[in-house]
């Protein structure tokens, strides 16, 4: 008897034992090592990490690379805004991309007090940015998402918003109303500009 351990029939390289298949498949399975599996797994994880890191890097350096100045957008003639009324006005977002479709349009509320005295409000609620609606009967702006309510002058009336509505900077040129647009307001950048 041979003192060495006999080779099981399934691992016999002669192809004569076991499952009746060819010896090529058995040699290929036997040639896979732990080191090879770890190297392939490591390469796949590194590739997945690289793919996941690309959007993160773009998010961090994107605003630096394409910082754009706000633009003055014409939203209509002064005659379009009657005194003591608040109107919803749609305009094209100057930072629009070709694939934006309908979302490339934005809106604001223009409130004409008297003469050339105006207030121009962002349509976005100061809480989470939902679009507010103007109700002339009650003289209130209301947010349908979480119940934020604002007075007609944009001041906070009730609900979860931390402040009043954001106001766009505006100017009047040659009988036209222009608003400074290009980014959404935040608590740190309220878009209000002193003229």
UniProtKB/TrEMBL annotation:
It comes from the Bacteria. CDD domains: Rieske. GO terms for molecular function: 2 iron, 2 sulfur cluster binding; metal ion binding. The chain crosses the membrane at residues 37-61. InterPro entries: Rieske_2Fe-2S, Rieske_2Fe-2S_sf, Rieske_Fe-S_prot, Rieske_Fe-S_prot_C. It holds the Pfam family Rieske. Residues 1-23 are annotated as: Disordered. Residues 84-179 form the Rieske domain. Keywords: 2Fe-2S, Disulfide bond, Iron, Iron-sulfur, Membrane, Metal-binding, Transmembrane, Transmembrane helix. Gene3D superfamilies: Rieske [2Fe-2S] iron-sulphur domain. The keyword Transcription does not apply. Its cofactor is [2Fe-2S] cluster. One of its GO terms (cellular component) is membrane. PANTHER family: CYTOCHROME B-C1 COMPLEX SUBUNIT RIESKE, MITOCHONDRIAL. This is Cytochrome b6-f complex iron-sulfur subunit. It comes from Kolteria novifilia. The gene is petC_2.
């Amino acid at each position: 008897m041979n003192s060495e351990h006999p080779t099981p029939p399934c691992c016999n390289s002669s192809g004569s034992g076991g499952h009746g298949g060819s010896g090529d498949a058995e040699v290929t399975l036997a040639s896979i090592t732990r080191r090879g599996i770890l190297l392939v797994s490591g390469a796949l994880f590194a590739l997945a990490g690289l793919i996941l890191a690309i959007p993160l890097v773009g998010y961090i350096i994107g605003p630096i690379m394409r910082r754009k100045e706000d633009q003055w957008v014409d939203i209509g003639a002064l005659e379009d805004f009657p005194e003591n009324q608040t109107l919803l006005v749609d305009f094209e977002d100057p930072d629009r991309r070709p694939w934006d479709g309908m979302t490339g349009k934005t809106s604001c509320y223009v409130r004409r007090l008297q003469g050339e005295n105006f207030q121009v409000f962002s349509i976005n609620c100061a809480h989470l940015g939902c679009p507010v609606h103007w109700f002339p009967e009650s003289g209130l702006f209301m947010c349908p998402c979480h119940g934020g309510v604002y007075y007609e002058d944009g001041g906070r009336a009730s609900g979860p918003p931390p402040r009043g509505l954001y106001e766009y900077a505006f100017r009047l040129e040659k009988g036209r109303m222009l608003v400074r647009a290009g980014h959404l307001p935040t608590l740190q950048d309220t878009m209000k500009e002193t003229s």
